[in-house]
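Key result, reporting period 2: structure in, sequence out.
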């Protein structure tokens, strides 16, 4: 018994070993507590607050839903007063507001260079300080290169925007066609038919939430799916593909002919193609070296622009730098914004329109069918020349007979 007690005490003391981990973890807490104290310089915090403010405005407005244009919007879009309206709304543009940090920075550099050259020319500074000036010939040679670089950058971004728009046009058309096929093919099981149609309506919503940052899928699908279906979709890693699985497995339960089943299942390829194209656009940007080259070219151009223009413009280099930075960086900013097309497209409005159209088809299906049956019965009971009711087939044979001719 005496020999068992020490071993039992050792076994009790060996499991609780959190002390070395606690001693290792405390320095991390101390280091992390010291990190926010280092960047407390007022100048650095003020300079950092300007781009943070501009980025916050841009990201907030990127999350706003984009409307689909109607006839009244096109009339306003092409009106002759659009230039004045666009000019007055410049301060509310997210593109212009996001350019405030670089434009202010380069305009401040131009003002500093102009002040320095003026102080040297007036003799305020010693003679050892040279006037910052240079020939404009290098800028005349590189200006076409900068223009082509900006044009190619914007064109590449617009091609991605157009590709994303075409991908979503295919998704919308595929969803509408698939819903029409289900409404026309499935006749017996109304409960399962309605469930499949709800899954079809939920697919573009799930794809939109899969592509748009910080989207609330539970809120958007709350009115379309039941609670158990919504729980399955939310628990999956890839929500659009989960809805495709729900559609596919629901169609297996339908009592359909094999040919109709094959036709319906072939419509799911459009969904898979839409997912793959959209994910490629989302995951593969324009080559980063191309974007970095454009940004570096613009920065070096505007840092040296006041030195190039000093001999000809003097203090006019300040407004000239402001205008050049505002215009050229605006073109580059538009290219960066439309490079991610799904934030710029009216995806929410497209999803709402698709769901409304499918819901309208579901509601009007029975009314249209009853109306067509009544028309068919009325056409089959047209009166003959002697007053007796005849069918449509008998009337056609009479009109085509030689005696009637």
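The corresponding designed sequence is given below.
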């Amino acid at each position: 018994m005496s020999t068992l007690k020490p071993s039992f005490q050792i076994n009790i003391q060996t499991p609780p070993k959190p002390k070395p981990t606690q001693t290792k973890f405390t320095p991390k807490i101390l280091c992390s507590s010291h990190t926010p104290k280092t960047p407390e310089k007022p100048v650095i915090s003020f300079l950092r607050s300007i781009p943070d403010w501009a980025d916050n405005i841009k990201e907030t407005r990127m999350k706003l839903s984009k409307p689909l244009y109607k006839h009244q919007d096109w009339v306003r879009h092409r009106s002759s007063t659009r230039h004045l309206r666009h000019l007055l709304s410049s301060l509310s543009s997210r593109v212009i507001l996001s350019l405030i940090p670089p434009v202010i920075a380069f305009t401040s550099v131009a003002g500093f260079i102009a002040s320095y050259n003026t102080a040297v020319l007036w003799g305020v500074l010693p003679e050892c300080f040279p006037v910052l000036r240079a020939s404009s010939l290098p800028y005349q040679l590189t200006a076409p290169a900068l223009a082509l670089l900006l044009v190619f950058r914007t064109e590449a971004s617009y091609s991605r925007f157009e590709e994303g728009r075409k991908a979503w046009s295919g998704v919308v058309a595929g969803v509408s066609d698939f819903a029409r096929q289900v409404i026309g093919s499935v006749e017996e099981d109304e409960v399962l038919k309605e469930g499949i149609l709800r899954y079809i309506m939920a697919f573009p919503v799930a794809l939109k939430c899969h592509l748009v940052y910080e989207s609330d899928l539970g809120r958007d699908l709350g009115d379309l799916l039941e609670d158990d279906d919504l729980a399955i979709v939310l628990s999956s890693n890839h929500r659009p593909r989960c809805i495709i699985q729900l559609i596919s497995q629901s169609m297996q339960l339908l009592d359909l002919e094999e040919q109709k089943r094959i036709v319906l299942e072939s419509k799911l390829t459009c969904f898979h193609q839409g997912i793959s194209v959209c994910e490629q656009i989302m995951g593969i940007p324009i080559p980063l070296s191309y974007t970095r080259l454009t940004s570096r070219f613009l920065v070096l151009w505007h840092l040296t622009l006041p030195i190039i223009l000093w001999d000809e413009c003097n203090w006019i280099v300040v407004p000239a730098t402001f205008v050049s930075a505002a215009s050229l960086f605006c073109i580059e900013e538009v290219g960066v914004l439309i490079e991610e097309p799904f934030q710029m497209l009216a995806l929410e409005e497209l999803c709402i329109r698709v769901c409304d159209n499918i819901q309208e088809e579901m509601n009007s299906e029975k009314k249209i069918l009853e109306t067509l049956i009544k028309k068919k019965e009325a056409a089959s009971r047209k009166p003959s020349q002697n007053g007796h009711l005849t069918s449509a087939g008998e009337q056609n044979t009479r009109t085509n007979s030689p005696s009637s001719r």
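The radius of gyration is 35 Å. Residues 1-36, 388-392, 401-405 have pLDDT under 50 and may be disordered. This case is discussed further under Risks and Mitigation.
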